[in-house]
Amino acid sequence: MSNSVAVELQVLPAQPITPWRPPITSADPQADAEKMAATFKALSDPVRLRLFSKVASHPAGEACVCDIADVDVSRPTVSHHLKKLRETGLLASERRGTKSTATESPDRIRRSGMLHRAQSRSSQ
Questions:
Q1: What is the CATH number of the domain that holds 80?
Q2: pLDDT category, 82, cuts 50, 70, 90?
Q3: Per-residue pLDDT tens over the stretch 46-75
Q4: Which of 27, 49, 68, 79 reaches 20 to 30 Å from 95, CA-CA?
């Protein structure tokens, strides 16, 4: 037997829906669609999404790779996933002495309009 319980949900008043990402209307919509698809593909991997989230959640939008590498995969695998995020343009990296720093690329994110949180944070 199921222990399901009926719950009454409150109906909210209708509000106009404002899209956070306008449709693709650039001069080259095919190229824009391909770039967006590559970005979605990069973020569709759970490890890459976690790594990107860890970098983006740091106050300055950058983090030492040693601080974000605790995603239950080996170091070489972390490096591989960070490389894929760099190739997509979502992250940039820089070596500082013996440490490597990953930085989110807000310009790429803003241009793609894909991550609303990043857009609103960069406009503050």
A1: 1.10.10.10
A2: very high
A3: 999 999 988 888 877 788 888 888 999 999
A4: 49
Tell me which residue has tokens 């222990």: 3
pLDDT digits (tens, 9 = 90+) for 2-42: 677 877 878 878 777 665 566 666 778 888 888 888 888 99
Q: Which residues lie across from 91 on neighbouring strands?
A: 104
- Specify if 14 maps to a domain: no
Contacts of 42 (CB under 8 A, 6+ apart): 48, 84, 85, 87, 88, 90
Which residue range(s) make up the domain with 79?
A: 29-122
Rounded to whole angstroms, how far apart are CA atoms 50 and 69? Answer: 10
Q: Kindly state whether residue 24 falls inside one of the protein's structural domains.
A: no
- Which of 52, 85, 90, 96 minimizes the C-alpha distance to 71? 52
Alpha-carbon gap, residue 21 to 55, rounded angstroms: 23
70 inside domain: yes
Which pLDDT value is given to residue 121?
Answer: 43
The number of domains in the chain is 1
